Amino acid sequence: MRKLCSSILVALLCGCAAATVCAQTGESARHEPTRTSRHHPDRSMRPQLGKASIYADKFANRKMANGRRMNPHGDNAASKTLPLGTRALVTNLQTGQSAVVTIEDRGPYVDGRIVDLSPATAEKIGLARRQGIAPVEVRPLELPPPDGAVASADEVPAYADELMPAH
Q: Deepest in the core among 33, 49, 63, 76, taking most CB within 10 A?
């Protein structure tokens, strides 16, 4: 009984001490991310390995991080680390099927998952909704400029025609 009372007393004193420090510094007793911490996108162009999941139906037509609406029939995807506007090749490591996506949103917020795919893209790489997740490689193909600007049609480099397949 004496040990129990001592333990409770120590816990109370520690709690009071923490509350006093927090009150003096203006900090919260819980650790919360600060609003001033900024997301630093991965611009390394290194392939990422992890799991892909499919956007839930409830996200259809909702605004994404870039301000556009999520199109379940489009090639949009979400990544926690790649810059918005990145074009990437997503390959299902079980089926070998690939599709090119544009990172337009943030997420997924589940450990081990590196990309959320639109239902249309998931279908292209052989990821069925009933399966839910699949191991993938996400290989960045093209990064947006660091300032986040989007090139207009007249700013496309002259060699871009060489990248386009002949008709």
A: 76
* Residue (of 99, 145, 155) closest to 122 by Cα position: 99
Domain with 53 in it = 48-145
Q: d(Cα 124, Cα 83) in Å, to the nearest integer? A: 23
Tokens at 12, concatenated: 């109370």
Asked whether residue 143 carries a pLDDT value surpassing 90, the answer given is yes
With contact defined as beta carbons under 8 Å apart, do 104 and 84 qualify? Answer: yes
77: CATH: 2.40.40.10
Model-level pTM greater than 0.70? no
pLDDT number for residue 41? 85
Give domain status of residue 165, yes or no: no
| Residue 122 backbone zone (phi > 0: left; psi -120 to 50: alpha; other: beta) | alpha
Residue type, 41: P
